[in-house]
Write a structure and sequence with these properties.
With 503 residues, this protein is of the alpha/beta class. The protein contains 14 helices and 20 strands. The strands form four sheets. Strands 8-9-11-10-14-18-15-16 form an eight-stranded mixed β-sheet, sandwiched between helices. Strands 1, 2, 3, 4, 5, 6 and 7 form a seven-stranded mixed β-sheet that branches. Helix 4 runs parallel beside helix 5 and helix 9 runs parallel beside helix 14. The longest helix is centred in the middle third of the chain and has 26 residues. The model has no long low-confidence stretch (mean pLDDT 96). The structure holds ligand BES, manganese (II) ion (MN) and zinc ion (ZN). The site of ligand BES has 15 residues, from helix 11.
Length: 503
């Protein structure tokens, strides 16, 4: 899809379609009024007759509107004036895109970016429109023998901004929006890929592909032999039951001076989590191919970062591993010595994510990071606590938590902080080892983070539990591309080139 911005009036546009908003009840937006005037009241007439109420998401496609240069006019309901919020705006954009795609308009000029959205500015509206468009056109059909192509797909969209002064801002919004959508796309592609194709080596190949495409990216892959030498016995134990080698991909992005401390992102990359010896029930077990969603998110954010060419140093780690039952798999009762030297009694082999991440957290100490953020589909408990709209956030440093919450608010990629208080640590006590990998039923997301926190003492660290947000279940099953937008926004803010989204 090609995107551009323009600042002009609707009657001057010669396009396959112009898209304008209508407020509830049956009230034209200022842009709509301009069109109405040149069409001698054609549009207001239709509204009076009750063809469109203006409810959010309502669509009415008009052909041959008198005196209008464009072939079509798409009227889009925007609800009550000044009451449009983030969620409705995105829904409206996404519905507009599918309508345009179905009606054979190959290009369109869209005035919805001039609509008032509560607390949001032009930069935000244009960027979200780009991200939402790309997201709603996404399909994963690489493995279908027949692909379904729209007959005359939408190819080009022009977003209108209110003043010429805002053109530069609009262009930057498109650039950022595209970079973020490209990151989200590879995140989704890799996450949707089935586990017989997407194994830890495949994650490594994806990292290598980034290296091939961007000068500032260098990748090295840490296999089982090197993990052995490093003493990453906890990570290795999780992968031991699998025929696929555990591989940790280390992606270096060097955008600043060599000595500048890096931001480290670590993604849980369980390319399949069967539960191991503590095997999961069969229902929906296929969805455990998405247990590498954290790694896919990190890969996506690295891609976005490289495309935006930000002047910072970032290291992205894809902690690739497969958790399988087998005669040489690790078992409940085993005591593992982690790379940090701390010992862990395994009480459940399905609490494997933390056992992989803990060694990755120790591994990155060597980089002297400014901050470390891990992203993981870590606990089913997070879905119980926050559902599918919101990622869980925990941190050992409040300013970092706040920066992430701010990035989340700006990008619309929702997150909510849970406490990491000391009281919860007691749930991990073990009679035989330093602690266990299981905290019991209560506060499962917090006790998992408590476990990780014991390996993140040497730096500022935050943990994002994306178990509920990285993919959708059910008939619309698929990866969401989250939390690429939040991470990218965090990096943008860090590089100080992001637009302040508060209007
Ligand atoms: N990958 C799962 C968490 C998960 C479950 C994410 C369902 C999304 C949907 C993780 O490895 C796991 O199995 N966690 C266990 C932890 C428990 C054994 C302490 C869980 O949440 O049940
Ligand atoms: Mn598990
Ligand atoms: Zn898992």
């Amino acid at each position: 899809m090609e995107f551009s911005v323009k600042s002009g009036s609707p009657e001057k546009q010669r396009s396959a379609c112009i898209v304008v908003g209508v407020y509830e009840p049956r009230r034209l937006s200022p842009i709509g009024e301009q069109l109405d005037r040149i069409s001698d009241g054609y549009i207001s007439n239709l509204l009076r007759r009750g063809d469109l109420e203006g409810k959010p998401g309502q669509m009415l496609l008009l052909h041959g509107v008198p005196n209008v240069l464009s072939e079509r006019v798409l009227l889009v309901g925007c609800g009550k004036e000044r009451e449009l919020d983030d969620k409705q705006y995105k829904q409206i954009i996404s519905k507009t895109i599918s309508t345009l795609n179905d009606t054979g308009s190959m290009e369109a000029v869209c005035f919805l970016t001039e609509q008032h959205v509560k607390g949001r500015d032009t930069y935000w509206k244009v960027r979200q429109a780009v991200e939402t468009t790309q997201d709603s056109l996404y399909v994963f059909d690489q493995l279908k023998s027949k692909k379904s192509e729209a007959r005359r797909p939408l190819r080009k969209i022009v977003f209108n901004v209110p003043t010429r002064r805002e053109l530069t801002i609009g262009e930057q919004a498109i650039e950022h929006g595209l970079a973020i959508s490209h990151g989200q796309k590879i995140c989704k592609d890799v996450a949707n890929m089935p586990p017989n194709i997407c194994n830890p080596a495949y994650l490594g190949e994806q990292a290598k592909e980034l290296e091939a495409n961007f000068d500032k990216i260098n990748v090295n892959l840490v296999g089982e032999k090197e993990m052995e030498e490093l003493g990453m016995h906890s990570y290795l134990a999780v992968g031991r039951g699998s025929a696929n080698e555990s591989i940790m991909s280390v992606i270096h992005y060097n955008g600043a001076a060599e000595g500048k401390a890096p931001i480290v992102l670590i993604g849980k990359g369980l390319t399949f989590d069967s539960g191991g010896i503590s095997i999961k029930p069969g229902e929906a077990m296929d969805e455990m191919k998405y247990d590498m969603g954290g790694a896919a998110g990190v890969l996506g954010a690295m891609r976005t970062l490289a495309e935006m060419n930000l002047p910072i140093n970032v290291i992205g780690i894809l902690a690739g591993c497969e958790n399988m039952p087998s005669s040489n798999a690790y078992r409940p009762g085993d005591i593992l010595t982690t790379m940090s030297g701390q010992t862990v009694e395994v009480l459940n082999t399905d609490a494997e994510g933390r056992l992989v991440l803990c060694d990755a957290l120790t591994y990155v100490e060597a980089f002297d990071p400014e901050v470390v953020i891990d992203v993981a589909t870590l606990t089913g408990a997070c879905i119980i606590a926050l559902g599918h709209h919101t990622s869980g956030l925990l941190a050992n440093h409040n300013p970092l938590a706040h920066e992430l919450l701010k990035a989340s608010e700006q990008s619309g990629d929702k997150a909510w902080q849970l406490p990491l208080w000391d009281e919860y640590q007691e749930q991990l006590e073990s009679p035989f080892a330093d602690f266990t990998n299981l905290g019991g039923r209560a506060a499962g997301t917090i006790t998992a983070a408590c476990f990780l926190s014991r390996f993140a003492k040497k730096y500022h660290w935050a943990h994002l539990d994306v178990a509920g947000t990285a993919w959708r279940s059910g008939k619309n099953k698929g990866a969401t591309g989250r939390p690429v937008a939040m991470l990218s926004q965090y990096l943008l803010n860090h590089a100080d080139v992001g637009q302040d989204s508060e209007a």
